[in-house]
What we know:
By secondary structure, the chain is α+β, with helices and mostly antiparallel strands. The protein has a five-stranded antiparallel beta sheet with strand order 8-7-6-5-9, covered by helices on one side. Strands 10-11-12-13-14 form a five-stranded mixed beta sheet, with helices on one face. The protein has helices at about 50-55, 90-100, 180-195, and strands spanning about 10, 15-20, 25-30, 35-40, 45, 65-70, 75-80, 85-90, 100-105, 110-115, 140-145, 150-160, 165-170, 200. Residues about 1-10 have low confidence and may be disordered. Helix content is about 15%, strand content about 35%.
Amino acid sequence: MSNHERIDSRYSDSDAEYQTTPEELFIVVRPGRPMYIRVSPGDRIQEGDAFHRERMGETRHLPTWEVTEITPSHVLGRAVGSDEEKRWDREQLERGLVVGRYSTDLTDFERISVIQTGQWGEYDETREQTGTRYNGRPYVTVVAYGDNGERYGRRYRFVEGTEDRLELWTQDAAIDRFRDEVRARLDERVRAELAADGYTLHDA
């Protein structure tokens, strides 16, 4: 669950909702959905859409700044590798993050969804799948929403002979490229959310 419902919205448009807090940016990318962007001092802002460039295999270096100050009207950043300072109008930077003109680094996952597909009471391994109702072996899908505006999926299968113990089955390729500390944060968040839903994560 997010702890940002207490923050009042400053303004919104059809693409996003931009929320008010003096010392950080917090953007709901699509109102009514859990995708969000959060930027605090110390985070990095990069020109362009870093996530999709990486997914397409593009390695070209683009300007990157470390955020040094966030105020209600502007954001200051210092270029990585130099002392050059950049100043953004806050609203322009927020909108730039939403449309992909800028991107921020991934540090946390504050919103997690857990969905079980299939029910044990309806599962029969000898019966073929028919129609649109799934009656195969149950599994659990976890979607983790990162503070960079992207989402990452994992799929878990049940440990043989159990109805509440899970083991990792598949995951998005992007997760394999996470830094160690980011992957550890994801594991921590997912484990807690699965436990809240009554599942136990089995470590291989």
